[in-house]
Amino acid sequence: MSTRRFSHSDPELDELYSDLSTEHLQPLWELKGLLTPTPTVASVPHRWSAAQLRSLGERSGRLVGIDRGGDRRVLACANPGLGGAPYAVSSLWAAVQYLGPREVAPAHRHTPAALRFILEGSGVWTLVDGDPLAMSAGDLVLTPSWTFHEHHNPSDEPMLWMDVLDLPMVAALEAVFFEEGPSEDVERLTDPVSRSERSYGAPGLLPPPAERTTPTRHSPLLAYRWADTDRALARRLDVTGAGAATMTYVDPTTGRDVMPTMRCEAHCVVEGASSPRIRQTGSRVLTVFHGSGVAEVGEQRFDLGPGDILAIPSWVPWSLHAHERIDAFSTSDAPVLHALGLYREQEQP
Amino acid sequence: MSTRRFSHSDPELDELYSDLSTEHLQPLWELKGLLTPTPTVASVPHRWSAAQLRSLGERSGRLVGIDRGGDRRVLACANPGLGGAPYAVSSLWAAVQYLGPREVAPAHRHTPAALRFILEGSGVWTLVDGDPLAMSAGDLVLTPSWTFHEHHNPSDEPMLWMDVLDLPMVAALEAVFFEEGPSEDVERLTDPVSRSERSYGAPGLLPPPAERTTPTRHSPLLAYRWADTDRALARRLDVTGAGAATMTYVDPTTGRDVMPTMRCEAHCVVEGASSPRIRQTGSRVLTVFHGSGVAEVGEQRFDLGPGDILAIPSWVPWSLHAHERIDAFSTSDAPVLHALGLYREQEQP
Amino acid sequence: MSTRRFSHSDPELDELYSDLSTEHLQPLWELKGLLTPTPTVASVPHRWSAAQLRSLGERSGRLVGIDRGGDRRVLACANPGLGGAPYAVSSLWAAVQYLGPREVAPAHRHTPAALRFILEGSGVWTLVDGDPLAMSAGDLVLTPSWTFHEHHNPSDEPMLWMDVLDLPMVAALEAVFFEEGPSEDVERLTDPVSRSERSYGAPGLLPPPAERTTPTRHSPLLAYRWADTDRALARRLDVTGAGAATMTYVDPTTGRDVMPTMRCEAHCVVEGASSPRIRQTGSRVLTVFHGSGVAEVGEQRFDLGPGDILAIPSWVPWSLHAHERIDAFSTSDAPVLHALGLYREQEQP
Amino acid sequence: MSTRRFSHSDPELDELYSDLSTEHLQPLWELKGLLTPTPTVASVPHRWSAAQLRSLGERSGRLVGIDRGGDRRVLACANPGLGGAPYAVSSLWAAVQYLGPREVAPAHRHTPAALRFILEGSGVWTLVDGDPLAMSAGDLVLTPSWTFHEHHNPSDEPMLWMDVLDLPMVAALEAVFFEEGPSEDVERLTDPVSRSERSYGAPGLLPPPAERTTPTRHSPLLAYRWADTDRALARRLDVTGAGAATMTYVDPTTGRDVMPTMRCEAHCVVEGASSPRIRQTGSRVLTVFHGSGVAEVGEQRFDLGPGDILAIPSWVPWSLHAHERIDAFSTSDAPVLHALGLYREQEQP
User: Fold this and answer.
1) From the CB coordinates, do chains C and A have 3 or more pairs under 8 Å?
2) Contact criterion met (CB below 8 Å) for D302 and D310
3) Taking CA D10 as the corner, what is the angle to CA D7 and CA D12, rounded to the nearest 5 degrees?
4) How far is CA C125 from CA C138, C192, C250, in A?
5) Which of A195, C177, D210, D295 has the greatest count of CB atoms below 10 A from its CB?
6) A236 three-class SS
7) Cβ-defined contact of C16 to D63 (cutoff 8 Å)
8) Chain C partners within 8 Å of B205 (Cβ)
9) Rounded to whole angstroms, how far apart are CA atoms D66 and D71?
């Protein structure tokens, strides 16, 4: 019997509650904690250490074939506050993926959207709907909702990157679809510039409107290169003059977030400086690309270095303090909060 | 220890799994059911009967004061598939609210948005940010996200209506805020036309752009009257020629859904006819205003009459068959599915 | 030789100017009045009197067959400031059209968009892409860009209405296209409600998104009835509390102007009151439906009564003063000024 | 007497026409050429030669001070078909501007929007609302509607570029405003990267939404550098595989045209190849940056080389044929045609 029973010392009320239960009804006045002054947040601040992620990734690479299940060798961050669910924060899946030399993770597609931020190495290609995207350290690579994608490692070195997916949201909305795909023979695996970049990768320039791809809900630009991000952060630092800057990855055809469910951001904090202490509705996952320092998340402090992954729950103030200049990447569910009229942001003293 | 432990007969793997668990990581290849060919749906088709809702509402009215908790006398539909959660379907709260003679449900506001569809009676006013909205049978009344609202029953009769809220989604995104409000002395409680209708209630006519209210995420029109809906359905039936028609309630300043999280629709099916059998991603709650017939939801059939409430889970085909002409009202999370690029709809044979 | 010659007393300059002329070049420093502090306005305030329009319309009806030229019996308002061009103001064509008993103005279409505001009478139908729109006093009827349209007068009475077209703008952009069309046998000429109104004529209600007509640049609602306009003005007067109110006709699927080139507005001013004295970039044509009073346009005053047509040039302050309650209709090019970022509006003391 | 008189051999008609004229009315059936099957186009194909433009610019520089009138030393292209109006095509002003060593063209602003395409040289700065934009060959620099702008030539060399303005359209809409501005002491005149480029000049990266400049009707990126354009054309050529490619300059925050009235495009045609022969509603001005070849515009052929300016009227088919690889820049009124629903494009055999 799944319906909750409420009880009361008053026999008449008790009988009402029993009849309500029989009818699959619940009395609002006995329900607590539904409408709270500020959000009830399940996930907790947490850091996964790069050393552990790499070491456990390598052990998995030795012990587990890529075809073992799910066709991907992935270690999912499971937030300690979420009761065993394999989610880094309430609304986002985050994981490290380990692809050994000569391995191929075969083609499939799913409605949950994914992105990859490459922490180190190079030489792996992700194919998205037939367009080979070279993956190198610092790059952001998108595999949007319902696009076929596969990963190829033709090199002699293993490679490891961070995956982020909107899976918790898509699952909560009961809209997960999945399909295996035909893997492709790809001759263009040596082209460092993807087809998507050839048309959509220039600053302030696009193909003529009639030649653009049919508008989709995601960016037609699928790979964002670190060299561009690095230069953009440096230039933006000059404008903010604050020792910290953030740039948002956008769909160049709309200026909106790269995908409808996830905002991607690059952050830098120069040596000795701090990023503003803010809190936002919605959850965030952050990883460090370069540098080191400390993250304050609510009451907690975490030492941070390259490759560490950090969970920042909803409405918890956070900031970064750089011992040496930090370059970091984060993903949040901000586009969803915006779309639903639920986004709030506060700078904290 | 909240993190899941995986185990294996291979000792090396078992040790890996143990170390993963310590580090709050989970091996994707051991997780089942994450990416399914079609959605995994938790809620089940269910009907709450009008007779029970009314009778239990009345008993609650006798036994429980309105100030008992939550400031509302509300019976929440708890879908039998949701393990005791007070939600009618996975993404929507639905409930009946019972307000006795001379009662006032005091002012508050919350980020979850609400709507009221009045099943019978009249004489109650809902104030939304100071604008009194008369409530009569067949009307739709909005209390959008973060608007102060209160209910007044100055009459000698109790009144009962259906509430629908987007609470499950706002809670999942950890964005619930709540605030009590100053209740107002309202002199205009006898005005059958709200301020919102005076400016935004005409077909194809709006105040000049410079005089419109600052754009918000919800309709500035807050009350939709049954007489208009009834005429619109009749006219639309002439166009479809199919014995069934649906009209969507919209924000007249944008043509979009009345609120960013919930689509509201009026349906009619003439005697002897059926609505198309469709399935959609996302969940729906439907109630009957007039008429009777049968709802097919997946494999199940439910007799339907005025005031019954029906839960239609994601991706389950459904249709209505009218014994006598049915007028019905439904709310779904379709705007969210659309905004996130996850909406799919199929007509079923 | 069409190129302008500039001359100068300095022989060297004179030779330069001569050479410039040969090369079809002009020296900016000799051009005057290109960039003026405020707009240079060619058209002048003017009123065409209803009595003259009706009488000359009737005489044309007697003397000139409808097939004489242009397939329409139309008298075009020619602003005295425009040097003989047949335009009421710089950017708008306005005219009265006279259709005799049993006459039919045959089908054609053109890229200039047109609208009809019916000053008196009833019984005429305009077909727009096959949808018959009954025309009665006070109604607004649209024949958007490139839609086939024809007018039928099956009655025994002649009928006269005001046409407004965006022809000057479309001609200036060199984008006029024209095509004769197949006139249709129309059985539905007795239906007082058009197909467009059946689907798009209800306040705050639309067909479901998937059933709406493919989005176009114009409103799918093609007829706006006086009864709705009248009630909307009355209700809006209650909100403004100023003795004057304006409502804008909109596309119900977007809340935007009914067509991309012309804004349509209904105005009322109660007895003894005045509308705000404002000036706006862009031109306007106004006609009176009911009532009488005085229009101030710049320095000029015009007595106004039913059926008079008034030209209000760009950036000239204007207001209406009602001796008896005035209901008026106006069209302006405001959507173009808005789209191009050129709209300015000022309230004048 | 500005009103046109129509006359007729029939005395009754003649009297009617006389009375119409008195009332400032014109009979549609006597007006010819208003609604034509295809556009009536006033401007004609024309080429202004680079050699003449440079030579006449230099002579003007010697003979005419910059403060002589209009504060700019500008030679306006006057299309031979426009009866002496100083417009290159019906809807666009095009001109060459010549700024001598050490000269400053002082600050002003106007509602007509302007853009500069630099044909040769470097060392001049345009300040737009205080942001110094270095100007070098191949760059596009925007001075959008109502932004203060001034030009500084601190070098020892004169400089010459092409100006394009939407003046004909703004004048036709009677919305020209002009204001002199305070010229600024600018210390940053040595910074090769403008403030606008620091925030908006990276591919697929923008400041976070809350840090972006308030949305305006124009691109916040004000300078587009040739190096980026050149690379974008090269990459796009790989995708089209046709020997010709076009890229559109866009507002990176929206993907839309850089200004609401003018589309800017870069074209390249490789040696021996041709661009597609197309015709479009709306007018275009094109200039060659590199290379040489032939332009076919309607029935006419023009030899083209660097710095030549070409007028392409509405609805006239045109294409480029490259003897040596052509890089060209063009501006058209396409955004206006699009906004008003009047854009048509046809590929011609």
Assistant:
1) no
2) yes
3) 90
4) 14, 9, 22
5) D295
6) helix
7) yes
8) 224, 228-229, 232, 247-250, 266
9) 6
d(CA D300, nearest CA chain A) in Å: 26
* Summary count for chain B: helices (H), strands (E): 6, 22
CA distances to A151, A166, A177, C233 from C243, rounded to whole Å, are 70, 54, 59, 11
**Both tokens of residue C74?**
């139309």
| Contact exists between D and B (3 or more beta carbon pairs < 8 Å) | no
**Domains of chain C: which residue ranges?**
46-347
Q: What percent of chain D has pLDDT over 70?
A: 97
How many angstroms separate the Cα of B19 from the Cα of each of A346, B11, B12, B22, B24? 38, 12, 11, 5, 9
C201 lies within 8 A of chain B by CB: yes
List chains touching A (3+ CB pairs under 8 A): B, D
Q: Residue A323 has which token pair?
A: 């011992």
Q: What is the pLDDT of residues D87-123, one digit of tens each?
A: 999 999 999 999 999 999 999 999 999 999 999 888 8
Task: Judge: domain A46-347, CATH 1.10.10.10.
Answer: no
* Side-chain-side CA neighbours of residue D311 (13 Å): 29
Please report residues of D whose CB lies closer than 8 A to that of C4: 78, 84, 86
DSSP C80: G
Instruction: Please list, in sequence order, all residues whose beta carbon lies within 8 angstroms of the beta carbon of residue C194, skipping any fewer than 6 positions away.
Output: C131, C132, C133, C134, C222, C223
Residue C46 touches partner D, C-beta closer than 8 Å: yes
Per-residue pLDDT of chain B (349 residues; tens, 9 = 90+): 345 778 777 899 999 999 999 999 999 999 988 999 999 999 999 999 999 999 999 999 999 988 776 678 999 999 999 999 999 999 999 999 999 999 999 999 999 999 999 998 888 999 999 999 999 999 999 999 999 999 999 999 999 999 999 999 999 999 999 999 887 776 667 788 999 999 999 999 999 999 998 888 999 999 999 999 999 999 999 999 889 999 999 999 999 999 999 999 999 999 999 999 999 999 999 999 999 999 999 999 999 999 999 999 999 999 999 999 999 999 999 999 999 999 999 998 8
User: Which residues from chain A sit within 8 angstroms of residue D249, using beta carbons?
Assistant: 204-205
Please give, rounded to a whole number of angstroms, the shortest distance from the CA of C193 to a CA of chain B.
Answer: 9
Between D90, D261, D340, which is nearest C174 by CB?
Answer: D90
* Cβ atoms of B139 and B226 closer than 8 Å: yes
The CA distance from D30 to D259, in Å, is: 40
Q: How far apart are CA C259 and CA B46, in angstroms?
A: 46
Q: What torsion, rounded to 10 degrees, do the Cα atoms B75, B81, B83, B88 define?
A: -30
pLDDT at D1: 38
Nearest to C174 among D48, D315, D339 (CB): D315
